[in-house]
Design goal:
Helix content is about 70%, strand content about 0%. The chain has a domain of about 70 residues. By secondary structure, it is mainly α.
C-alpha cells in the first residue's frame, strides 16, 4: 500500500515536472521567435531606407538631367536668346501711396477705438 502511494506521488511529481519543462521550452521558443522577428523587422526597415534613398536619387533633378543630356535628344539648356522679357506696368505714383498709407492709419485708429480690450503684444521670453 505504501509502495503504491509513493509511486503515485512520484508519478504526479514527474508529470508536474514534464508540464513545467514543456512550459519553459515554449517560453524560450517564443523568445527566440521574437528575437528573429525583431531582426527581420530591423532588416526590412533598413531595406526600406535603402530603397527610399534609391528612389529619391533616381527622382533627383541631377540624375534626370544627366540621363536626358546623356541621350542623343533635342533637349538643351536655355540660353539668353531664348528668354522672353516682358515689360510690366510702371509703379504707382507717390501720391497714391501716401493716400493709401493715410487710409490704413485711419482705419487702424478707428479699429483701436472700437476694440474693448487692450492690444496683444508679442515679447521675447527671457529664459
Amino acid at each position: 500500500m505504501k509502495l503504491m502511494k509513493i509511486i503515485r506521488i512520484f508519478g504526479f511529481i514527474t508529470l508536474l515536472s514534464l508540464i513545467y519543462i514543456n512550459m519553459q521550452m515554449k517560453i524560450y521558443d517564443l523568445a527566440y521567435q521574437g528575437k528573429n522577428k525583431e531582426a527581420k523587422v530591423r532588416e526590412l526597415h533598413e531595406l526600406n531606407g535603402n530603397e527610399t534613398y534609391t528612389i529619391l536619387k533616381l527622382k533627383s533633378a541631377n540624375n534626370i538631367g544627366y540621363h536626358l543630356l546623356a541621350e542623343n535628344s533635342d533637349l538643351k539648356f536655355r540660353d539668353d536668346n531664348q528668354v522672353v522679357r516682358i515689360q510690366t506696368a510702371q509703379a504707382e505714383n507717390s501720391e497714391s501711396r501716401v493716400a493709401l498709407s493715410d487710409w490704413k492709419e485711419r482705419t487702424s485708429s478707428l479699429l483701436n477705438l472700437i476694440s474693448f480690450g487692450s492690444q496683444a503684444e508679442a515679447r521675447p521670453q527671457n529664459k
